[in-house]
Design goal:
The protein is an alpha+beta fold. The strands form two sheets. A four-stranded antiparallel sheet has the order 1-2-3-4, covered by helices on one side. The longest helix is centred in the N-terminal third of the chain and has 43 residues. The radius of gyration is 20 Å and the shape is elongated.
Length: about 160
Amino acid sequence: MDTSKIVIFIVFLAVCVLPIIYISRKGKKKEKQTESSFQKMVSMNAVNVKTIDRWHNTIIGIDEKNAMLFFVRNGNEEEISKAIELKDINKCIVNNIAKAGNSSSQIMELILTGDKGETTLEFYNSEVDGFTLTGQLQIIGKWHKIISGIIKKNK
């Protein structure tokens, strides 16, 4: 009788723990992939990135001396990698979109406008990142300030 309880407990424990381990490993693999893509992009441009922020599967960094911004976001289906020369950017704005209705969602992004058009950097999307903000509001404010300062300095 005692051995059957032990076996049932072990099976129950395995059923509860194995999915958590699988999800954790999958997340760490995505983080490593994002980091690798970021490092590859930085080394291809031969710059020295000193200011970097990381959250979920997103990395943003800047080489202020060369006015180069790097952004990598590894979403559910695709990876977005952008290297942006800030000397070509005229304006940086924070765009916060909140959609209400049956499936409410929120998107926070920086929109960089320049001579070559508009570039969007998505910092948060509730459909991809879940409904809990984990510092993205502060991070987007910080990067808006950094980028706007470099734009003013380059004018």
